[in-house]
């Protein structure tokens, strides 16, 4: 029996452990800006919905309750600017990471098929390709890809790790190219609500997709938008033929979002106020850290959206990680997101105000 794990890269975060130990030894404690996990409270309106649905003895369905599907289609039309979304256009996910990792296999891809993703990217796109035995392909420009054997094309805007936002022309070009070559385009839009100096647009917006879901999926997550990383709440929206096939596969696999989390998702998508409040918290932390990093000698690239500052001192990323660890600040080496990140670090501004202020003080020396 061949170990599936042998197809996968070394789990990168293990390599950060020694730096974490160094940072944790700082007398005022570690400021962990590495992982990008939400730290602020789950909004009350969501917790109440979860609690009210806690008496859920029966199995939930993979497709979700009618109320959940209504909430998803409503949000897709309202927030994303899509038109004509019905229940066949949505599919609940147990957090989006499981979907990213499992999608190539659930689509039946394997040896001989190719899966493309941005050169600097969330590592799970490559992991998904490798788990399926498909060939991972990193691209700089979608339209320069060789379409031979290409079955799945990932976009990620706003991007993790760079915070880059694809503009409407770039999105339209990618959609046009994918449709021309019959390649399924899946757009990971989990940071869509977190634009700072650019307004992220969905591939499902009527002006991008031309009012048709053909050949397109968008992936959305409530982890960042609503501080729900611990709930595992996400969904895909788009092409009904692709989602119908995935629904069948996922029913057989028992990939059900727990019933209380489905209820919590309905409440979360109905409320925009908490999103605005959370955005304000992040905006403050982002500005403070950005100014401190720049004053310290960093150059910040892209970062117009998402929860990260893509930063460089024009030196190997592990040197930067080491220098910041000495200040008790832990960041992610850009190399985790591909060799092209070898001279950058990703600084998440998901720490509390108190920890962000501590980092700012330390950077100011
Ligand atoms: C680009 C991207 N996609 C997907 C995810 C997964 O999010 P979740 O599984 O919490 O929905 C993350 C998490 O950081 C991410 O950065």
UniProtKB/TrEMBL annotation:
Cross-referenced Pfam families: Aminotran_1_2
Enzyme Commission numbers on file: 2.6.1.17
Cofactor: pyridoxal 5'-phosphate
Keyword entries, A-Z: Aminotransferase, Transferase
Classification via InterPro entries: Aminotransferase_I/II_large, LL-DAP_aminotransferase, OxyQ, PyrdxlP-dep_Trfase, PyrdxlP-dep_Trfase_major, PyrdxlP-dep_Trfase_small
Domain of life: Bacteria
Residue ranges annotated for the Aminotransferase class I/classII large domain, each copy included: 30-363
Enzyme class, first EC level, given as a word: transferase
Any one GO MF annotation of this record: succinyldiaminopimelate transaminase activity
Gene3D superfamilies associated with the record: Aspartate Aminotransferase, domain 1, Type I PLP-dependent aspartate aminotransferase-like (Major domain)
Protein name: Succinyldiaminopimelate transaminase
Source organism (scientific name): Streptomyces pactum
Lineage of the species this protein comes from: Bacteria, Bacillati, Actinomycetota, Actinomycetes, Kitasatosporales
Gene name linked to the record: dapC
